[in-house]
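Subject: Sanity check before I submit

Could someone independently write out the structure tokens for this chain? I want to compare against mine line by line before I put it in a report. The sequence has 270 residues.
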Amino acid sequence: MKTLIATALIMASSASYGHDNSFSSESCNLDLNGGININAQEITFSKDKSPLYSITENDTLLINGEKIALTAHQESLLSDYSTHIRNLVPEVRSIALDAIDLAIDGVNLAFNELLGEGNQASAELTSQLTIIRGEVDAEFTQQGNFYIDEEGFSGKDFFDENFEQRIESAVESTIKNALGSLMIAVGQEILFAGGDMKAFESKMENFGELIEHEMKTRSAGLEKRAEALCRSIIVIDKMEEQLKESINEIADFDLITASAKHSIENAKLM
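---
Independent answer below. Compare away.
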């Protein structure tokens, strides 16, 4: 039963993110070869914590604090690049929070089915996941500053193996605390089945399939949004290549590498 609930939670919370310190799904991979800091005034790109260049006012390029003279075409490329990067932040935040909300829904579906509405186990695990949700939200909104590098968001490991382990630990703790109630619930189910273990096993199997189907259905929209996000990142990667070809001063900087498989591998630069 612990595995069933944990699987539902991890499936929901991992709908858009994998590990290896990169955005990842079955069809999309993003590798960062440096850091990107976004605030209201500028976007700063860095390597090993040292600034490489900044974009201010969307179309102004600064290297070592000095403005680089650009043509109108180069300014247009820079503006498009900056705008696309800024547009990613609210969507990443929205997908992340919705994934955790989906995990919370999974908690309530599972525990409410087993223990009834308003049970303590559901309330406890929902509370822990809500705390994690708040931390993720704060990571995106703190002081209007957003930073990500090879190590993750602001140097923290959200959406990687540690993120999944936190959810698994919350599930394990809740299961342990609710073990008595769960055993009673299981005993009652066996009694209702007249002591027929095969009937009980069949009911539990059907219950697991119901939860899995419900979670997959609810996560389908999230997966589509993740693929759309991937396409946006691929566009940004192509924009970076155009900038490198057009502006000699940043020709050696390659911070974003995005790739896709299957249905989204042919994403086009808009």
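---
OP: Matches mine. For the report I'm noting this point. DSSP finds six helices and ten strands in the chain.
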